[in-house]
Write a structure and sequence with these properties.
Layout: H1 4-23, H2 26-46, H3 52-74, H4 93-109, H5 115-126, H6 131-138, H7 142-163, H8 168-171
Length: about 170
């Protein structure tokens, strides 16, 4: 196995960023990052890891989605502060607030769609991976990525329309 301390040091910022983008909470992102590295270590003991960034990003995404599902089951929303990383680059405070509201609403809705759809949506919309990168990470066809993303956006749009009609067009972007 490779130098574990070096792997953690090198990839911690990206893992934390992935978790934070989905969870929007510093403490939850830190817990998710820790879980991600524990899971990755267990995986690396059984198999050779060829692409640490891809493996860690996928594990972090899955763990963060699991935490969102748990929040949904408990009926808690977590800390809405810190959604600025999903906001537009505009200095307009109204747009900034709206982006934060939309991010928090999407965090509440994401656990309500099928797991693979949520994972593809997060990797595409939050991590900004290409269809090819997502397909490689998930071990699926590029066309399947498109189908899953289309279904995720459609289902999120339905849920968003019911929860907050003013945001419906944002999910399709």
């Amino acid at each position: 196995m490779e130098d574990w301390a070096d792997i953690v040091r090198q990839h911690s910022p990206a893992v934390w960023k992935t978790a934070y983008r989905l969870l929007g909470n510093h403490a939850d992102a830190a817990d998710c990052a820790q879980d991600t590295f524990v899971t990755a270590l267990e995986y690396a003991r059984r198999r050779t890891v060829r692409q640490w960034p891809a493996l860690l990003r996928r594990i972090a995404t899955c763990r963060a989605l699991d935490q969102l599902r748990e929040r949904f089951r408990r009926g808690t929303q977590g800390d809405v502060a810190g959604c600025e990383n999903l906001a537009s680059g505009s200095p307009d405070p109204v747009q900034h607030a709206e982006a934060g509201e939309l991010a928090e609403l999407l965090r509440r809705l994401l656990p309500q769609i099928p797991e693979k759809q949520a994972e593809v949506f997060a990797l595409r919309q939050l991590e900004e991976l290409t269809y090819e990168e997502i397909a490689g990470q998930l071990g699926i066809d590029v066309n399947a990525v498109g189908v899953l993303l289309h279904r995720a956006r459609g289902r999120l749009a339905e849920l968003l329309a019911a929860a907050a009609p003013q945001w419906n067009s944002e999910v399709h972007g």
